[in-house]
Amino acid sequence: MKSVLVVLACAVCLASAHAKPLGESTNIEGWMVQAYSNDKTGQFQHCATSVQYTSGILLLFSIGKEFNWAVGLSN
């Protein structure tokens, strides 16, 4: 199960690697929220949010322009 979560967290990070942030990230009660565009076309690509817990766990969510989504955990 841990390997599946690591893969999902990597998928979120890789999607962000080929993306350009749209504006500034927003902090909503500890959750960092950011929209991204494709760095080549400029079109919206996905939104991502994450929160870091005091236990060291990072929880990530991402939703793409075609409503595909991912969730990930990292420690």
Describe this structure in words.
With 75 residues, the protein is an alpha+beta fold. It has one domain (2-74). 21% of the residues lie in helices and 53% in strands. It is built from one helix and five strands, in the order αβββββ. The chain has a five-stranded antiparallel β-sheet with strand order 1-2-3-4-5, covered by helices on one side. A hairpin with a 2-residue loop joins strand 1 (19-28) and strand 2. Mean pLDDT is 83; it is low at 1-10.
Taking the alpha carbons of the first and last residues, their distance comes to: 14 Å
Largest sheet: 5 strands, antiparallel
Strand/helix succession: HEEEEE
Number of strands: 5
Summarize the structure in short.
The protein is built from 1 helix and 5 strands. The chain is an alpha+beta fold and 75 residues long. The chain has one domain (2-74).
Write the layout of secondary structure elements.
Layout: H1 2-17, E1 19-28, E2 31-38, E3 44-52, E4 58-64, E5 69-74
Antiparallel strand pairs: 1-2, 2-3, 3-4, 4-5
Short key terms for the protein model shown above:
75 residues, alpha+beta, 5-stranded antiparallel β-sheet, 21% helix
